[in-house]
């Protein structure tokens, strides 16, 4: 068992050859080829990201790289700084690996040195300076994001997370809605975030980084959209079964439009205009709906579910679970559990004859 | 001064006699009973590896199911319930039941061998730890079969996981399962530290201890300090859920962020608990394939220790979006950036080792190179999260999922696979097929990047994590599809790895004792090692004992202090400089570790189903067995006279 | 033997004396110290959680309806538990000299003091349970969990001491064989010392 001669060799001068059993290592070595393959791949990856981003991501992607407000724009700048530093350091490391592989067949003595100085400089001192610089930038960004830029008097919105929808209140006027936050473009909006049950997180990638909704606390953040537009947001803290369907829409409007919208939301909901709608209101008030939902100016004053005073104009039903059209609305009312399994609204036994009227009424609420 | 030529060749006959005597004391006859009673660190280590590999496969299959569901928008292959249970169990199993135990398996097998010892410091505790691990895994996975697996995510944030929001049994399984498993990890950690401090071969001062062992020791110290917060958190959660306490109940004065602090006070060190032994594996393999000793050994050791310490000061970077005060955010941000420096040191030390040596690209080395490339990428995204505002933007998005799979797959799984190939000859006495290994590497490397790279993009495009489905038209579809394709490539590669290893074990050529020319002591033992590891305990004279002529010579001296053939004995040495102190008596096989573990299993099951009397009986069984286990052995007449 | 003149020789052979009596720390010592370290960390995080919850609670701690704890009983408990480390030390010293009687008497004394502590704790619980339970509010949860967890440790410690006493009566220990005494003593000292932290946290700190 003991083949002592093998241990006689002195370490640094003549390291033992690697004995291979089985196939010899192929000439021209696999990994070198592999690493040549690798580099283009990452380059391609980076290029793809860059291309996606430069094209503005089109198609309504809630991309953090397509910012529409000062908060997200600040972060985007930081990202590109970090991205290029990483590309640089990665290139250094890859070159290092490549060089070691390229030189592996050279002749001559193996060097004895311990490379301590090199390791300290390349591994500790240089990164230290890079990181210190980056940290400085980070601190700067942090204070920029803590305090909103000066400007017009901010609008305050109270947002409450529920399993699995968003309650939105405008304390200045008492207006209430759900899953949709209208804001005036170009104005800072102060958000007070709280939760009615478990943790959620408020995230509109194009406008502002996240802030969590913590049980027992009120967190504040702000956002500002430069231009009118629709910016998709989504709950980003896992909150149970329907965490996937807890999206919302930030709708930035010109100031005048926003004011008009808010005024409409503050007064009573539009009265039913047709016979069908009147009948629908009746079904709504007398059925189970009113126990859970509010429609302002009617007998429906429930607070378990979202306020429906303007449900006809909403971007979706069920916080992104289904598009807001008559068909889906009917399906939702009949059995929302097939659309959004586990949500807190039980299937409603609305007689088939009444359903079209109910739908017509709800769609008129806009 | 002592070269082999000067040593008189050890009498072959004397040596044969020695081996025979040792065999008598250490050998185990294969039998069903010995399967339950063995305390041999090599058998236990192999068991850890195999069991962890099985759990890896299960958790990987779960991941494939997740990815299949996410292949296209709006799919309904999995229900929300199923998806939530699967991703929770995937994460929990990968972290707790695969990564740590797999690395502990390597540690168990290798630490005594690398130290030149004959077993771990506490062999029976070691066996006990394995059984607990096995049972904890079985409990966790069987909850999935019962349809009520934990579904609160691997960090199980309250209040979602408290009784009102999660009434089923799933989160009890989580809390009790992790508490139970914690027993195993803690026992293992204590064992590693005591072994590394007391059982090193004579002459192996701390500055001659292999980097891998250093890594295991640093990890074990982290376990000692990191596991208590997790255990506390799970204990409190269980009390809240079962006995109506209010630690996390804001209505009665509790606080939900307490859970997050406790969890991440464990959780962040835990990710380094996973990666540090993996870095140790790299530091074992890379120098062998660079054919020179590792460069900047003191710096590497220091940086392992530094990571272990600093990692306790960064946990809040997982809570950057919870609305904590800015001052505390900037502190934890700085700490998170600081922790990259020791990692950087290691990367450049490995590069220097490769430059100064001459690289040979064997299959283990391929995986090490794969590790270098992917780990560095994952590290960079980690640094990005260190910056508070950037983290707030991408936290809980797929960008984070990309980060941690790059560091976990790149940083831990690649080294683990490299280690499986590298030590396969030592563990099984068989060689694997190079060519198959290369193909496997290509598929695993390609598949891994194809799976996880697109997640960076989908995360930046606003895709949150832990969603069981997503709508079309948000720019996420293509990236998710790519990811899903990737996992199948990856699975093919892993199957090839597995197939190659199994084939090697059944049909591989017999391995020589030292196929690679490694520098640590496991390579002077036979392949696979005898039950007593070394007929003569080596006398260590340098950091590279297997390359050192004098150490080799010491193996030929049948010095009775180092053969210790009377009874099961191994030398005990001093903590710092490895001076010989005395010869310790090692315990024999015993069924007690198994019985104790069964006792604790009964406790857990009793608590789970509210059969408290069953739990009580299990507790009695465990306590009684331990009492017998530790009962002092009969005194010899000499001792009785001496006292 | 050529090796006798090697300069490294002394590092790799047992010094003559130690072949007889172990010097230096044993594996068991390390095992116990590490175990106690991880346990101490657990207590530290538990007490840390107390202060965290207290400061999150707001200015008025204790919660309304809960009186500040009386100090007399806990101080008596302290007076019983803390000195119980002394007999263990005395016993350990004794057995090192081979005096088994000291070992037996010392362990018995500790056993008695520890049990008295537990009995007092039982009385303390009896009076507190009239005021609040573990389900009343977070203070109740903290109080019973912290003291109960410590009480469990005392119980385990007593089991160990009792087990040791049984072995001592059988004559298992002697001048050269008393490692288990030493290890149990470490655990017992730890259980004692932790009580000081608990006394401060649960009782004294409410008066600050
Ligand atoms: C093996 C596991 C592992 C490792 C090694 C790391 C390494 C690092 N991690 Fe990671 N991390 C996880 C596993 C790991 N992480 C997991 C599982 C999560 C998510 C948990 C969850 O939410 O489910 C997570 C999440 C996570 C977060 C929270 C993200 C969030 O949820 O919002 C943060 C924030 O700071 C972070 C930071 C870091 C940093 C700074 C490192 C550093 O240690 C990296 C250091 C390494 C390098 C940087 C590369 C090499 C260095 C050089 C080549 C030198 C030069 C470099 C520079 C100058 C930049 N990690
Ligand atoms: C070590 C840790 C580890 C590893 C290796 C992996 C591996 C993988 N992970 Fe995992 N993952 C986590 C840790 C890990 N993960 C954690 C902690 C989370 C967070 C959970 C949470 O949010 O709570 C997570 C979450 C997570 C998600 C996010 C879920 C969500 O947020 O909704 C996804 C989605 O794609 C995913 C995918 C994958 C895939 C495709 C693999 C693949 O690499 C898997 C490949 C494996 C196989 C396909 C099995 C095939 C194996 C064989 C055939 C045998 C091989 C055997 C040997 C070689 C011995 N993981
Ligand atoms: Cu609300 Cu996720
Ligand atoms: Cu972390």
Describe the structure.
The complex is a heterotrimer of chains A (366), B (643) and C (208). By secondary structure, chain A is an alpha+beta fold. Chain A has 3 domains: 2-14 and 40-102 and 113-146, no CATH class; 155-266, Cupredoxins -  blue copper proteins (Immunoglobulin-like); 275-364, Immunoglobulin-like. Chain A is 40% helix and 17% strand. Chain A has helices at 5-8, 30-54, 70-102, 116-146, 255-266, 275-286, 289-292, 326-339, 355-364; strands at 155-162, 165-170, 175-178, 180-184, 189-195, 200-204, 208-213, 219-223, 229-234, 247-253, 316-317, 322-323. In chain A, helix 2 (30-54) packs antiparallel against helix 3 (70-102) and helix 8 crosses helix 9. Chain A is elongated. Chain A starts with a helix and ends with a helix. The model of chain A is unreliable at 1-41 and 53-58 (pLDDT under 50). Chain B contains 21 helices and 2 strands. Chain B has helices spanning 12-26, 32-37, 41-70, 80-115, 123-145, 170-198, 211-243, 257-290, 297-310, 326-338, 340-356, 363-385, 388-394, 398-428, 434-460, 477-507, 549-554, 560-563, 592-608, 612-630, 637-642; strands spanning 569-573, 580-585. In chain B, strand 1 (569-573) and strand 2 (580-585) form a beta hairpin. The longest helix of chain B is centred in the first third of the chain and has 36 residues, at 80-115. The two termini of chain B are 45 Å apart. Residues 1-8 of chain B have low confidence and may be disordered. Helices cover 71% and strands 0% of the residues of chain C. Chain C is built from 7 helices and no strands. Chain C has helices spanning 9-12, 27-57, 72-81, 85-96, 100-131, 138-170, 179-203. The longest helix of chain C has 33 residues, at 138-170. The N and C termini of chain C lie far apart (72 Å). Residues 1-8 and 16-20 of chain C have low confidence and may be disordered. Chains in contact: A-B, B-C. Chains A and B meet through helix 1, helix 2, helix 3, helix 4 and strand 7 of A and helix 4, helix 8, helix 9, helix 10 and helix 11 of B. Bound molecules: heme-A (2 copies), dinuclear copper ion and copper (II) ion (CU).
